[in-house]
Each structure stands twice: as structure tokens, then as C-alpha cells.
TrEMBL record:
This is Probable malate:quinone oxidoreductase. It comes from Paenibacillus vini. It catalyses: (S)-malate + a quinone = a quinol + oxaloacetate. Its cofactor is FAD. Keywords: FAD, Flavoprotein, Oxidoreductase, Tricarboxylic acid cycle. Its EC number is 1.1.5.4.
Length: 502
């Protein structure tokens, strides 16, 4: 594939410099070091959209605290299969990051991952009963061992003093806590990975915006790119990954591949409240996830998180979901309208009808005053004062809309989807959840779908990077515990000096 004469021809083109392209590029550099790779990013730096540390919640999603990954069945039992799946996917990321650190390809893991207890918190008798049953079901799996449950307010005061301070004692309250959770700075990680790719001579072109993708007669993909001087350039590649975040749908539509039809996008904006008052910040040390309000979408589950950003500890509360027609934070108000094409108009209309309540909810959320948001925060921090908290605008999420057998036409999806051409020459990542935490798993899926002819030869290297590749960790507790210990050591997660105990 290599030794190409023309400098505008690449083996691989990655569109977008977010965590997904960073991850795919880094994996491919290990598997096929000679391939010529080019990255186009419309902004002037890597990791400035959803992957930026201020634009997402930085939770290393391993299903240790997110209540929406476990479902209560009609008989009262709790289905933990999705939680197991997400936890295993996060273990894949941990192993890959640990490989990169151990090989000195990236350094200073404390700059992108910190140990932080993950907790779920509920109130009311029924919710407390659910949380107990959920705890019992989860702790049967080796993946969730070490999780604790408590409905004792003295214990909870020890775990979450800020949340328990001045709280009315008449409502039943309970929490689970597990110390193996993490706070991940995906922005820092993205920048580290692009620095590494730059050192490996990947051509990273910032301020280059891809505006079209077309198939050439000889089966390559030809990209029309507006460069940093405002001029048009044309570049070709055998394989293109569309990692444009919210910008991926429109680029996928431009490829014209049959797999791009009948798909739409539904944008959801987000806001956080941030507390920079050190006295308050020091009173909390965890990610504490609550339950979504009735009618709220899963991505607006409220949580109060300790964050490590810009070498400083802060507290973030939210996200408050809202409606904006933009597909990227730096996008255009026309994004939603221009994503409607002849082939997806019925899907989009059906979704419009189905999502009236959700849209109404999101519009109401956008209109909330700061005081109303502080009132929601007081559910978590009863004595929160408005002057200690500021509003920050988070990233945009574009949820996939498609026709499904179970949901029918125009069904809103809350997960991530890899859409690829039948011949594997182009792939796009759509959707936003569980997002950056599972980037390595998702990019391995891209590799499985798009490079099946190389998989056998690449497998030993993949197993070197991800020792659990192809193995269920839930069913192999010994391997799980070994990997948990070794990755904690390499990533510095076992270092007690990095764990702040209240
Ligand atoms: C509010 C919020 C909270 C979240 N919380 C979490 C969390 O706690 N944990 C977690 O794991 N995930 C979380 N996520 C999801 C996570 O942030 C995303 O899944 C992830 O960052 C997506 O990475 P990406 O590389 O696909 O996209 P992005 O980081 O958005 O990168 C896409 C890049 O492509 C560029 N681009 C777009 N179009 C073009 C074009 N035409 N030409 C050139 N460049 C282009 C953009 O400028 C951008 O830099 C959250 C997301 C949001 C919005």
C-alpha cells in the first residue's frame, strides 16, 4: 500500500482530530507502520469539539455508577448485561492506554486519567430498594467486586459530605460506591495521541475542512478540502475514516454509499455548572450519578463530579440537556435542516412525530434560568449558593435516527454506530454514547469491518496491545484481576498519593 508518488495520495485518511480518529490512527500505526496516513481537521488544534475536557463529563464509563445501564425487569430482578458489556469495553481502553504508556508512546498518565470513586445515589423507598437489588446483581460479577452499598446516613456523610450536609432526614436515601472508577481528560489524551502520531510522521493538517467525498473510477476516495489559505485541494485514499463527531453524518451522506441512506441525526446540546470555589471543591471527591427525571433522555442523568482539568480540581454538575440545531459546537444553525435528504425525509418526519415530548423537554431545558439550574443542583448539594457556580457550555451530541425493527420508522438511538461501506473502504462513527470511554473497542470494530483481510496477521499485535482481545473478562475473573492490577500500576491508578481521601 505504501511508496506512493503523489503527496496527495494516502493509504488512510482520517477526518477530524477528536478522540476517535486519534485512537484509530494510533492503533493503525502500530499494526501497519508503513501506511501513509493523513488527518484533516477543520479547527486549528486537536480535541477541540466533543473530546475537549470542558465539552464532556470525563467519566471513564465502566458502568460503575450509571443507573441507565441496568434495567429493572417486570419481576423486580435487575438485568446487568449492558453494564457488563460497557465495563468490558472500558477494560479494552484501559489496556490499550496502558500499552501506550508502557511502550513510552505517551507519557504522564496522570495528565489524562485519575482514580476517582464512582457512586450511584438515589432517594425514595422504591429507588433505594432498586439500588439494593442492582448492587446485589452487579456484585455477583467479578467486574463489579469491591462495590459497596449503604443506606446509613452516617456512612453516606463519610462518603459524600457535601451532598449530605443540611439534607432533610425524612427521605430514604442510599448509594453505592466503588473506588476503581476514573476521571478521564479525553481532551488531554486526544492531544497526546496526536503528538505521538505527529512524531510518527503522520501528516496532520489543521484548518483543513473536508467539504466533499466522492468515489473515483479506480475505487479510491477523493476528498475535496478547503485548506488553511482558503484554497481547494483534492486528496485521495484507499480508506477513509469519517471521525467528524457531529460533522460525520453530512460527510457520510456525501459518500452516497447505500449504508448512508435512511439515517438522520438529532442534536442535543449540553450545559454544566462548574464550581471553582476551592473550599467547596475540597468537600467532594467522587463522581455521583443520580436518576434521570421522568421524561428526560438518558444523557441528561444529573451527576456531581470531581474533575481534574488544567492541573486543577473542580466540581462539575450536569449536564443540562437542551436543544440546538447545530451538529457541532462550532457548527451552523442550518446543520439540522441540511441533514434532511430525499432518502431520509420520512425517517426524520417519523422521528419528529415520535420525539415531540423529548423536543419539548429539551426546549424547556434551554429556557431554564441559572436560578432554576441551581435549584436542580440543590437536589444534590442542598446548600449550594449561586455565586459559587458558573455555567459552561458543553459539546453537542448528535443522536442517530434510523428505522429499526423493534422501534419502527424514525427511532432515536442512544448508542454509537459504525456505518461502513460493504467493501470496507470508508467508515463513519455516528452517535455519542458511551462515547470516548469505549473509543478503543469501537475503533477495533472499524478495523474488523474494514480490514478483514489483515486481521489474522494483525491479531498477535492486537493481543499484545489488548491482552483480553476476544476473551470475556466477566467469564475469566483471573485474567480480569491480573489486568486490573497491571493496568492500574502502569496508569498510576494504584498510586495512593494520587487518591485524595476526604
Ligand atoms: C455533554 C457531553 C458529555 C459527555 N460525557 C462523556 C463522558 O463522561 N464520558 C465519555 O466517554 N464520553 C462522553 N461524551 C461523549 C464523547 O465526548 C464523544 O463520544 C467523543 O468525544 C467523540 O469523539 P469524536 O472524535 O467522534 O468527535 P469530536 O471530538 O467532536 O471530534 C470531531 C472532530 O472532527 C472535526 N470535523 C468535523 N467536521 C469536519 C470536516 N468536515 N472537516 C474536517 N474536520 C471536521 C471537528 O472539528 C472535531 O475536531 C460526552 C459528550 C457530550 C457532548
Amino acid at each position: 500500500m505504501s511508496h506512493m508518488e503523489n503527496k496527495r495520495e494516502s493509504d488512510v485518511i482520517l477526518i477530524g482530530a477528536g478522540i476517535m480518529s486519534a485512537t484509530l490512527g494510533t492503533i493503525l500505526k502500530e499494526l501497519a507502520p508503513d501506511w501513509k496516513m493523513t488527518v484533516f481537521e477543520k479547527l486549528d488544534k486537536a480535541g477541540e469539539e466533543s473530546s475537549n475536557e470542558w465539552n464532556n463529563a470525563g467519566t471513564g464509563h465502566a458502568a460503575l455508577c450509571e443507573l441507565n445501564y441496568t434495567v429493572e425487569k417486570p419481576d423486580g430482578s435487575v438485568d446487568i448485561s449492558k453494564a457488563v458489556q460497557i465495563n468490558e469495553q472500558f477494560q479494552v481502553s484501559r489496556q490499550f492506554w496502558s500499552y501506550l504508556v508502557s511502550q513510552d508512546l505517551i507519557r504522564n498518565p496522570q495528565d489524562f486519567i485519575m482514580p476517582l470513586p464512582h457512586m450511584s445515589l438515589v432517594q425514595g423507598e422504591n429507588n433505594v430498594s432498586f439500588l439494593r437489588r442492582r448492587f446485589e446483581a452487579l456484585t455477583k460479577s467479578p467486574l463489579f467486586q469491591g462495590m459497596e452499598f449503604s443506606d446509613d446516613s452516617n456512612k453516606l456523610k463519610e462518603w459524600i459530605p457535601l451532598i449530605m450536609q443540611d439534607r432533610a432526614a425524612n427521605v430514604p436515601i442510599a448509594a453505592t460506591k466503588i473506588d476503581s472508577g476514573t476521571d478521564v481528560n479525553f481532551g488531554a489524551l486526544t492531544r497526546m495521541l496526536f503528538d505521538h502520531l505527529n512524531n510518527k510522521h503522520v501528516d496532520i493538517k489543521y484548518k483543513h475542512m473536508v467539504s466533499d467525498i466522492k468515489r473515483t473510477k479506480d475505487g479510491l476516495w477523493r476528498l475535496k478540502v478547503r485548506n488553511d489559505q482558503g484554497q481547494l485541494e483534492y486528496h485521495t485514499a484507499k480508506f477513509v475514516f469519517i471521525g467528524g463527531g457531529g460533522g460525520s453524518l453530512s460527510l457520510l451522506q456525501k459518500t452516497g454509499i447505500p449504508e448512508s441512506k435512511h439515517i438522520g441525526g438529532f442534536p442535543v446540546s449540553g450545559l454544566f455548572l462548574v464550581c471553582n470555589n476551592p473550599e467547596i471543591v475540597e468537600q467532594h471527591h467522587a463522581k455521583v450519578y443520580g436518576k434521570a427525571a421522568v421524561g428526560a433522555p438518558p444523557m441528561s442523568v444529573p451527576h456531581l463530579d470531581t474533575r481534574y482539568i488544567d492541573n486543577k480540581k473542580s466540581l462539575l454538575f450536569g449536564p443540562f440537556a437542551g436543544f440546538s440545531p447545530k451538529f457541532l459546537k462550532t457548527g451552523s444553525n442550518l446543520d439540522l435542516v441540511s441533514s434532511v435528504k430525499l432518502n431520509n425525509v420520512l425517517t426524520m418526519l417519523a422521528a419528529g412525530v415520535k420525539s415531540v415530548a423529548l423536543t419539548r423537554y429539551l426546549i424547556q431545558q434551554v429556557m431554564l434560568s441559572k436560578e432554576k439550574r441551581i435549584a436542580e443542583l440543590r437536589e444534590f448539594v442542598p446548600n449550594a449558593k449561586s455565586e459559587d457556580w458558573d455555567i459552561v457550555v458543553a459539546g453537542q451530541r448528535v443522536q442517530v435516527i434510523k428505522d429499526t425493527i423493534t422501534g419502527g420508522k424514525g427511532t432515536l438511538q442512544f448508542g454509537t454506530e459504525v456505518v461502513s461501506a460493504a467493501d470496507g473502504s470508508v467508515a463513519a462513527l455516528l452517535g455519542a454514547s458511551p462515547g470516548a470511554s469505549t473509543a478503543v473497542h469501537v475503533m477495533l470494530e472499524v478495523i474488523r469491518k474494514c480490514f478483514p483481510q489483515h486481521l489474522k496477521a494483525w491479531e498477535p499485535k492486537i493481543k499484545e496491545m489488548i491482552p483480553s482481545y476476544g476473551v470475556s473478562l466477566a467469564e475469566n475473573p483471573k485474567l480480569f484481576h491480573e489486568l486490573q492490577a497491571s493496568t492500574a500500576l502502569t496508569l498510576g491508578l494504584a498510586d495512593k498519593s494520587r487518591v485524595n481521601v476526604n
